Amino acid sequence: MELKHLNDLIDIARTKPTKRLAVAASGDRAVLEAVHKAMNEDIIIPVLVGDQQKISEIAKELGIDTEKITIHHEPNPAKASQKAVSLIRKGEADILMKGLVSSAPLLKAVLDKENGLRKGGTLSHFALIESPRYHKLFGVTDAAMNIAPEFQEKVDMINNAVDVFHGLGLPIPKVAVIAPLEVVNPKIDSTSHAAMLAKMNDRGQLKDCVVDGPFAIDNAVSKEAARHKKIHSSVAGDADILMTPELNSGNVLYKTLVFLGGSTSAAVIMGAQVPIVLTSRADTEKSKMMSIALAAAM
């Protein structure tokens, strides 16, 4: 099965139990607009943490029935993040979302060794992209979290991205490990790492996926480009996941796809006990809504 449109996420989410979404510092109009849309699609039940008066005022403006939502009053954004995390730990919520709080205090609450949501591996950013230039949805990792990932962190990043596709019902996603070129050059770590990751996959150390690389970006997304380079791989031109070498390239690729390439995205942080919806102020309303839908669909 291939997913072709982000709207498919809503259909998938509707087939699963409705998720409770804990929003930290939720007194933000743009965030509550996305939450309201997700409510109307019957894919989430909001659990809002923040300044109760501000939340109620915005909710009234948007036409949200506050009788149908739970609000926990905590006006301090850092403490609101801790409270939202604690609600998940207590089993009172299923997904965490960033509201009007910077990423650092939210992630600090998530990574707290005693009271957080750590699983033991690396947290990583995953963006699901709908592009007018590609034949299906595909993932990009990592555009926001890992600055210069070491090899083991790249293993975790692949596992996190694969978990997303498994959650969406795709059992064997194809992972293209991106580098500046498609041959191993010992002076370029990204090419050596790619070859090692592919060999780990061959030997069953990276499971339930197909990993290949190194790929230059053209060979990963274009069968024609791969043919010209005489690359024979089931991943070439048909990748489900693009893993970039480090944050610079990942962030540039992600934002270029969205702002110059006409793509739409949904993004989550993976690697914690639950998905984390970590949207940006620059994200479109649709992107925020689809990020919630992605977390709910998993």
Protein model, in words:
- The structure is a single chain.
- The protein is α/β, with parallel strands linked by helices.
- It folds into 2 domains: 8-118 and 272-297, Rossmann fold (3-Layer(aba) Sandwich); 124-259, Isopropylmalate Dehydrogenase (3-Layer(aba) Sandwich), CATH 3.40.718.10.
- The protein is built from 11 helices and 11 strands.
- Strands 8-7-9-6-5-10 form a 6-stranded mixed sheet, with helices on both faces. A 5-stranded parallel sheet has the order 3-2-1-4-11, with helices on both faces.
- Strand 1 (19-24), helix 2 and strand 2 form a beta-alpha-beta unit.
- Helix 1 (8-14) runs parallel beside helix 11 (285-297), helix 2 (29-40) crosses helix 3 (52-62) and helix 4 (77-89) packs parallel to helix 5.
- The protein is elongated, with a radius of gyration of 19 Å.
- The mean pLDDT is 95.
Kindly summarize this structure in a few lines.
Helices cover 40% and strands 18% of the residues. With 298 residues, the protein is α/β, with parallel strands linked by helices. Strands 8-7-9-6-5-10 form a six-stranded mixed sheet, with helices on both faces.
Globally, the shape reads: elongated
Say what the CATH topology of the largest domain is.
Answer: Rossmann fold
- Can you tell me the CATH class of the largest domain? Alpha Beta
Helical fraction: 40-55%
Q: Report the end-to-end length measured between terminal Cα atoms.
A: 16 Å
Strand order of the largest sheet: 8-7-9-6-5-10
H/E topology pattern: HEHEHEHEHEEHEHEHHEHEEH
In the residues, how many domains can be counted?
Answer: 2
Bin the strand percentage. 15-25%
What value does the Rg take, in angstroms? Answer: 19 Å
